[in-house]
Design a protein that fits this description.
Elements: H1 19-36, E1 54-56, E2 59-61, H2 64-85, H3 92-123, H4 141-146, H5 156-162, E3 165-166, E4 180-181, H6 193-199, H7 212-220, H8 245-248, H9 268-271, H10 310-314, E5 323-327, H11 333-339, E6 344-349, H12 356-362, E7 366-369, E8 383-389, H13 398-411, E9 412-426, H14 430-438, E10 443-452, E11 459-467
Parallel strand pairs: 5-6, 5-8, 6-7, 8-9
Antiparallel strand pairs: 1-2, 3-4, 9-11, 10-11
Helix pairs in contact: 1-3, 2-3
Length: 472
């Protein structure tokens, strides 16, 4: 439940708080809610009606359902006051008082906000009439008990999940540009209220602001899923029809089909130049935008190469691999190679300093715009294969890795394949990470560990193709 504006945490109302102080707090909240909407009362004429809110000269007619909801809130306040009048300081009434008070205050906040929207839309002289026939009634008991912050939850595993997941090297940013990952259940939106307000600051039925960078910042920081918006997305200025599928997989997309405003590069030729290498979030895929190569250049020497070929993996399950997910910093090359083999792959990535998602789509492939902190939008036991390359690396803490691996396990069907491609980490940390993969109890179909030689640091590459077991 969202906290009403100006209301502190429920912790300000402990069980032992004197009854008179509770009443004072209640009175202050009710007074604040009334004062926040008092500019309307001189113009509101409440009439008993079952019709939708309408506007006439000098009068605003509100629906009968809204009057009932206001009366219901008043009744709730009366019941609470009666309970407190006869309650001792040790009573559970004071303990539950805060949750119910929070709900009532939130409802009053919503009421004042709805009146504000109604007033603004009708005083502006436009035809955009907002309705105030909104449900302010009680949520179910589970919603009340959850409250407005993670401390309202009782599950230790949920507390563990929602806690920040620092990178393995504390204080060092990963390729996403953050020092820790915030797993998302929507709670962290409250900690970024100004950015959420900015994201939702638009004119309804008009063009949306060009602000996807704010949206991505919110997603990476754990505010995900984002609110829906009632505005229209902009079209690139000189938009042209995409290439047909038989030629789009390996052709450079047209510059005119990409909105370049929030990227350092302003055309496609810049993406494939050496000048972009080294940009955070982009360096791991500095060659991704070069679509001229029709495959992976994989060395055949198993003692130095950590990679497996696609055909080598598909031969493990002839004809069984049909749909899957690639979770990588990518422009869809893996998905393109799989498409040529009649396998449909969704490519999950963010726009890390470059138009990854746009290029995936312009190639005729399926982009999935998703942060690492989000639960995968697939049902259980549905995908044939999950592939990841240059993503699950030694920057990742063990808690985060566990949640990611188990979500991949959830969406993989029984006997499905988990293909981990070129996981790398410090050599002395390799066993620690390999133990996490072993805890899945998957069957090892392909497994390879080789030294990582492109840096002076003591690192190793790990690649594996693992088969999900049958479980009863």
């Amino acid at each position: 439940m969202q906290k009403p504006s100006g209301l502190k945490s429920r912790k300000c109302l402990p069980a032992g708080l004197p009854v008179m102080l509770c009443l004072c707090v209640l009175g202050s909240i009710l007074t604040a809610a009334i004062l926040s909407s008092n500019i309307f009362y001189s113009e509101l004429l409440f009439r008993s009606t079952t019709s939708v809110a309408s506007v006439s000269r000098g009068q605003l007619v509100l629906p009968h359902s809204l009057l009932n909801q206001i009366a219901d809130l008043q009744s709730q306040v009366g019941v609470l006051l009666e309970q407190l009048h006869g309650a001792s300081a040790e009573s559970k009434a004071l303990t539950t008082f805060a949750d119910q008070l929070l709900h009532i205050a939130t409802s009053l906040d919503k009421f004042a906000e709805a009146l504000s929207d109604f007033y603004d839309s009708n005083s502006s002289g436009t035809n955009e009439v907002s309705t105030v026939d909104e449900d302010f009634s009680d949520p179910d008991e589970s919603e009340i008990n959850q409250g407005s912050d993670t401390h309202s939850f009782n599950s230790g595993e949920l507390h563990n999940y929602t806690a920040l997941k620092p990178n393995r090297l504390i204080g060092k940013k990963n390729f996403l540009g953050v020092e820790a990952i915030s797993p998302s259940v929507g709670l962290l939106c409250a900690n970024m209220a100004s950015n959420v307000d900015r994201f939702m600051g638009y004119k309804i039925y008009r063009m949306c602001p060009d602000d996807w960078d704010i949206a991505q910042k919110l997603m990476i920081s754990g505010c995900d899923p984002l609110p829906r918006r009632r505005c229209f997305s902009k079209t690139p200025p000189r938009y042209s029809e995409p290439l047909p599928i038989n030629s789009s997989l390996w052709s450079q997309p047209a510059d005119t089909n990409i909105m370049w405003s929030h990227y350092k590069c302003k055309d496609y030729s810049c993406l494939v130049s050496n000048g972009t290498i080294g940009e955070r979030g982009f360096f791991k895929c500095s060659n991704c935008f070069d679509l001229s190569k029709r495959g992976w250049e994989i060395p055949t020497n198993e003692s130095t190469s950590a990679e497996f070929t696609i055909d080598e993996v598909l031969r493990l399950k002839p004809g069984e691999i049909r749909i899957g997910l690639d979770f990588s910093p990518t422009t869809g090359t893996f998905a393109a190679l799989m498409k040529e083999r009649n396998v449909t792959i969704a490519s999950a990535t963010l726009n890390l300093g470059a138009p990854f998602n746009e290029v995936i789509a312009l190639r005729g492939l399926l982009p999935l715009y998703l942060s690492i902190g989000s639960r995968l939008p697939f049902f259980d036991n549905t995908l044939d294969i999950v592939h990841s390359t240059l993503f699950l690396d030694g920057w990742m803490g063990l808690d985060l890795l566990q949640f990611v691996l188990h979500d991949w396990d959830r969406v993989l069907r029984p006997k499905g394949l988990l293909w981990v491609d070129r996981f790398f980490c410090k050599r002395d940390e390799l066993k620690m990470y390999l133990d996490e993969f072993s805890r899945l109890h998957y069957k090892k179909l392909l497994w390879r560990v080789v030294p990582k030689t492109d840096k002076l640091e003591d690192e190793s590459f790990f690649s594996a193709v693992l088969e999900k077991p049958l479980r009863s």
